[in-house]
Amino acid sequence: APPLAGLTPAGARSGPPADGWEGPNFIGSRRQACEPTERWAEFYVQQRVLPFAHKAAEAGNLGGMDVVKQACDALLEEDEDAPLARIHGDLWNGNVMWIRGAW
Fold first, then answer.
1. Distance CA 41, CA 75 (A)
2. Which residues pair with 30 in a beta bridge?
3. Cβ-contact 75, 44 below 8 angstroms
4. pTM of the complete model
């Protein structure tokens, strides 16, 4: 099975990069914050969603922030009793190293 198969259910801390990683954090070519928070929702809203949504709105690529802010508010209000898990959404072919015979 691919290495990511067990990654999501492996649990995670809320915010900091992987154990041992001390370098900068990027999404594409854009640097992004990666600071620990008490709750995952705080990390995700403040360090992922809102910074990129604001940039998109400023560039004219997002019609407005109202729906984004409503979604973020709902996420922050949600109870977080579930264990944290890693999420990944960067498996596009430009972000994956293809090695013949690796699988």
1. 6
2. 27
3. yes
4. 0.65
